[in-house]
Specification:
seven-stranded mixed β-sheet; about 20% strand; alpha/beta
Length: about 400
């Protein structure tokens, strides 16, 4: 038997369920919790200790040896090298841009392991959002086709996952900009660069700063400098992590597209090895309004985007819920089409409170997935903190496409 220590940030019952399922998916047998130490488990790794230490999200140590993920998430104030923030969810480039409704990276990594995707496999993220799933897939050596209807989300995903490819040029450009006497986030000319990867990096630095100005009333000129320096440090830390832990990044293709029509994004039938995603929350979050300052800075037609975006389009709660249901059903049909036979998909889905009444959209969506041709495999309940007025409960639904 082996001794597995769970991360100290594991606090909720659903996380313990994910830890157990992840260990089983990575080849472990038995799961015996220590009666006196709730973070300690006795298990049998069956010769899979290397995979556990390199891939697992919910393993802090195994027989006293530190796991890679625990090293990645440790904040700087605790002696960490790869996380300059105080949050264990914001390591490497995860902290870029304050996107509401972000995926929890630890949960995402565990779900990739639970659905069984391996290095070299290809996953699809049909609602890529802030790019959390795409970055976690890449760090696991998994290729990811990331799709989103929002230009901001596509840009953000590219910057989080591809900046490492132009680190030297980014460093040179940032050092040049920081040497200037004045630097203004409202002057977009500083983002111009012949290398699109560098230009995208600078654009996100500008958008983060505009968010600081809009939401936190920060001084734009001084915070642009801080953001450029902080983003550079995070990409440099990513380079160190890849080298130190011998991580072979998976390729990420981030493209503008629609989860209701993945064929238009170039995804053919039965080509995807797994999906981990969280569809937009109907009513609970107005993604267009929340990021309006950034979308307008990118010169996006927000009215047109609102008319197309799932969970936002429509007038009034009843119409929005009806349209949301139509969109979800079409999304499930597309997921069933693109998955390979035997492949699995995990969805993090929440119930929404509309006009004072809770709508159990999770139950409906489970039925829609089955009608689309997927087999229900597992349902894990979890509680939402911070959105009580619009959402109280989430579920992690796992489905399998029949062979």
């Amino acid at each position: 038997m082996n001794t597995l220590c769970l991360p100290r940030n594991l606090q909720f019952l659903y996380e313990e369920s994910l830890a157990r399922l992840e260990a089983k998916a990575l080849g472990c047998e038995r799961w015996e919790r220590d009666e006196d130490n709730p973070w300690q488990v006795r298990t049998h790794v069956n010769g899979n200790s290397t995979d556990m230490l390199r891939r697992a999200a919910y393993t802090a140590t195994l027989d006293g040896e530190l796991a890679v993920y625990g090293e990645l998430i440790r904040p700087k104030y605790q002696g960490g090298v790869f996380n300059r923030t105080r949050s264990e969810n914001q390591y490497l480039t995860h902290w870029f841009y304050p996107y509401r409704g972000k995926f929890h990276p630890q949960m995402v990594r565990a779900l990739f392991n639970i659905v069984g995707v391996q290095p070299g496999h290809t996953v699809c993220e049909p609602y890529v959002g802030s790019g959390t799933g795409a970055l976690e897939a890449s760090l696991l050596g998994i290729n990811c086709i990331a799709v989103d209807i929002s230009p901001l989300c596509v840009l953000l995903t590219r910057v989080k996952t591809r900046s490492i490819e132009a680190l030297a040029e980014i460093r040179e450009r940032v050092q040049d900009l920081l040497a200037r006497e004045t630097l203004d986030p409202y002057d977009r000319s500083f983002t111009e660069h012949p290398n699109v990867v560098v230009a995208d990096f600078l654009e996100i630095a500008r958008l983060i700063t505009l968010s600081d100005v809009s939401r936190r009333k920060r001084d734009g000129r001084s915070w642009l400098r801080k953001n450029l320096q902080g983003m550079l440090e995070s990409v440099e830390a990513q380079a160190v992590a890849l080298d130190r832990f011998r991580i072979h990044r998976g390729d990420v293709s981030a493209t503008l597209g629609d989860a209701r029509n993945l064929r238009a994004a170039g995804i053919a039938e039965a080509t995807i090895d797994g999906i981990v995603t969280s569809p937009p929350y109907s009513i609970a979050l107005d993604y267009v309004k929340n990021d309006e300052h950034a979308l307008e800075a990118l010169e996006v037609d927000t009215s047109a985007l609102r008319g197309e975006m799932t969970g936002v389009r429509g007038r009034g709660a009843k119409a929005k819920l009806a349209l949301y249901g139509e969109d979800m059903q079409q999304m499930f049909r597309e997921v069933a089409r693109v998955l390979r036979p035997g492949a699995k998909a995990a969805f993090v889905i929440g119930d929404a409170t509309v006009d004072g009444r809770e709508h159990t959209s999770t139950r409906e969506m489970g039925d829609w997935a089955v009608r689309a041709g997927l087999e229900r495999e597992r349902e894990i309940p979890k509680i939402v903190f911070g959105l009580y007025s619009t959402m109280r409960d989430e579920k992690i639904l796992v489905f399998r496409k029949p062979d």
